[in-house]
Here is the input.
Amino acid sequence: MRHRDHRDFNHLDRRALMKGAIASGAALAATPIFAPAVHAAKTLKLGYVSPQTGPLAAFAEADNFVIANFLATVKGGLKIGGSTYPVEVVVKDSQSNPNRAADVARELIVGNKIDLMLVASTPETTNPVATMCEVEEMPCISTVAPWQPYFIGRQQNPGDPGSWKPFNSTFHFFWGLEDVIAVFTNMWGQLATNKSVGGLFPNDGDGNAWGDKQVGFPPVLDKQGYKLTDPGRYQNLSDDFTAQITAFKRTNCEIVTGVVLPPDFTTFWNQASQQGFKPKIASVGKALLFPVAVEALGKNGNNLSSEVWWSPSHPFKSSLTGQSAREIASAYEQATKKQWTQPIGFVHALFELAVDVLGRSAEKSDPKAVVAAIAATKLDTVVGHVAWDGKALPPFAQKNIAKTPLVGGQWRLREGAKYDIVITDNKTAPQIPVGGKMEPIG
Here is the structure.
């Protein structure tokens, strides 16, 4: 495999790859983290990219905890093909910027000469990293982005399903838009409403996918008798949502949904209260995943709802440590004095998969062998069973996507200003127990 220079890659990018994924610029300095070397064997290098700073930083809050525990677990080295290798994780920050994500991915591949790429958290991070890996023929496992914006957003022509092609080196595990739409509408069905829904869809990978009239919320809501008010795409980090609030009030929206950055939802929700807009339900992706974001709203965060991809209630165990979801969440809270957060489980699962895949790979330094091992994965992880077996997926996505279960929950205020999420819908994943029923806001 030859490493292409920037000119070669940019030529390919303009012709066939995700728009805006690659831009020139100085690469972020690597942060190598080592497990103690077991002998003089060549070090096994894992690259890891996530948004540790910027508006998406809440997704990476648990990274240090997860990586430190992973390295402690593999401190004796990892066996591949009869040899034992010391393990290093080279961590880089995308700074919540797709161009930066592409730059640091290339630095990991070309400069740090990693053996496997791991990447997490939103299409703005997963897509440019996976795109770079695909061009450089670097095996890559990604997560924490719905599969449609990950897979479709990386196609040469996202608007032409007939042209979509599978990828060779890049694999993703998470849920899809069909799952979050089912979870949200299942939660809404527990309460009496006028079925008028206001949509908050930003001009980014998630927002464009969620608001898409073919694969997003609109066709499903229409089929179920909901009326969607979509005021159009807004720019992330907006400071004025008056236009959206006015549109929602005009059509008497009793439900609000969308996929919103945490600071944007705080702005929207505070302005909605000031302008007298008080829906019965607000089910919002991304912004309402994290307790700190809900706490920022004070008492106005009570009964806001969101998708729940991982929680201490999930009945799964780590293949790496044997810990249950609850044990991992408790360990995080004890170590950091912070409340557990959903990405903990999926970042942990990334490293579970890395150990499983590399342990089954015929040869550490052979990308094709690693890719073959990823494709053959059948692993029970702390986020559920992961297998790239094509189940519950359309044919075009079956090679590269593995689905994980999704449920829905509602934030409930407890003592002080702290919130707990209560799982209120599990129709899409009955193995995950519910803890209560939906309650109207206010």
Q: What stands out?
A: The chain is about 35% helix and 20% strand. The first strand starts at residue 31 and ends at 34. The radius of gyration is 21 Å. The first helix runs from residue 6 to 16.
